[in-house]
Structures are given as structure tokens and as C-alpha cells.
Amino acid sequence: MIAILCGLGSALAWTAATMCSSLSTREIGAAPVVAWVMVVGLVVCIPLAAASGIPRGLGGEPGLWLALSAGGNVCGLLSVYAALRVGQVALVAPLISTEGAIAALIAIAAGESVAPAATGAITVIAFGVALSSLPTSVATTPDPGRGRAPLLALIGASFFGVSLYATARAGGDLPWPWVVLAGRLVGTVAVAFPLACQGRLPLPRKVLPLVVASGLCEVLGFFAFISGSRHAIAVTAVVASQFASFTVIAGYVLFRERLARVQLTGVAIVVVGVTLLSALSG
């Protein structure tokens, strides 16, 4: 039950981060938003990591998982932004939402014990997430980059899936502020610093609260994910991927985007899957 609740917390936090980022991206572009989100997260995590002290296992196996977590996150971002440059968001986003299922498969392959009934419930949730994230329309204009976009999106989802699993493994031995700090540090160095050097890091006053909220929600989401993954990585990863379903609902409420019948079906399937998983875990 803790894994499910923490997974839901992660999904809600990452939904809020996604909605804030989508609004700010329209003002200053995607790359600067990611940069500022990383900087905000870094500012939040540094004092928390300092307060927890330097962990003993930082240079051992947990440190390797930490490096894989941070590196996978950055590589995933690079792949996803490459996909968004050549393809439509409606085509890329559903593929990225498979990151939770990928992390769950890695956990199961690595030997995590999951009951057959729970595995079925996880599969139902993943299927519902995929349906709820499907685009409501298909572009009719030719797009030369459309063939590459799905491949790049799947590569990004794979990196994110590996990063989620590595984050869970590192979070099992290291304090959560250090685990989250690693990704923010790499993102700041790899994304924010180059943009700042090129003078391409604007921050209008109306965007400031959005990127701050997004950065804080990203940190909260990872905190919840790490907490839940200490009980069950596969369950937490798949439930956390519900941010795709929640984003669809949030888009309808905030932006009056219409929900297609297939998306409504996906949301209903997710609710059923979570209910089954909760009953099995109780």
C-alpha cells in the first residue's frame, strides 16, 4: 500500500510539474525551462543533502547507481528533446509515458518478487496509461521527421526507465536528497550552464513562479518515488507513470482540451487497475 500511495504522490507531483512546465515553455522555450527547473531543484537539494551529511556508500555500489540515475535522466532529456524537435508532442508523449513500465520490467528481470496477480494489475495500469495518453487527432500534413520521432522517444523512455530503476536502487542505500541532487547537478552542468554561457537563459517575471513550482514538484515527486520504491520498485514505477493520465485530465480542466473516448477508457482502466493493486497489496 505504501508503494501505491507514494507512486500516486509522484504522479500528482510530476503532473503539476508538467503543467507548469508546459505553460512556461510557451513563453521561453523548452530547454531554458528544463535548465531553470534543474537549478531550482539544485538549490533545494543542496542544503538538504548537506544536512544529512556525506553518506558512507557514496563511493561504492550505491554511488554507481547514483551515477546511472543522473546520467540516464540527462540522456533521456536529450533524446526526448531531439524527438520533440522533429516530431509532434502528441506522437512523442504517449511513448515517453512507458518509462514506468520499462522500470518495472527491469525490476522484475532483476529478481524483484511480484505476485502473478499484482503483475496482472500492473499490466492493466500500464495499458490504461497508454490509452489515456493517446493523441486525440492525427496530423495530416507530411512530416519528414515523423519516422525518427518515435524511435527517439522510445530511446528517451528507455533512458528514463533505467534512470527510475537506478534511482530506486540508489535510494535504497543513500539519503533521498543525495539521490535527487545528483540529477539536478548533472542537469545544471549539462543544460543550464551552456545556455547561460550563450546568453540563452531568459527568466521573465511571469515565468518565475512557474519554473519554481515545477522545480519543487520535481523534487517532491522523486522524494515520493524513492520512498515508495523502498517497498516495491515495480509497483511504484508503474503507478507513478500515471502522471500521463493525470496530465490528460488536467489539460481538460485547465485548458478545456477535449477527452477522446479512448482516453476516457484509459483513465477508467487505470482506476480499476489501481483499485485491484490496492486490494492485492492490502
**Overall radius of gyration:** 18 Å
Main beta-sheet strand count, sense and barrel state: none
Average per-residue pLDDT, rounded, comes to 81
What is the number of helices?
Answer: 12
Secondary structure class reads: mainly alpha
Give the helix proportion (percent range). over 70%
**Overall form:** globular
Total domain count? 1
Which residues sit in consecutive blocks of at least 5 with pLDDT less than 50? 138-142
Verbal overview:
This protein is an all-alpha fold. The chain contains twelve helices and no strands. It has one domain (2-30, 53-175, 204-281). Helix 5 runs antiparallel to helix 10 (233-240). It is globular and about 50 Å long.
List keywords for this structure.
single chain, 282 residues, mainly alpha, 0% strand, globular
List the helices and strands and how they pair.
Elements: H1 2-28, H2 30-52, H3 61-86, H4 89-96, H5 99-109, H6 116-132, H7 148-171, H8 176-197, H9 208-229, H10 233-240, H11 243-255, H12 261-281
Offer a quick outline of the entry.
This protein is mainly α.
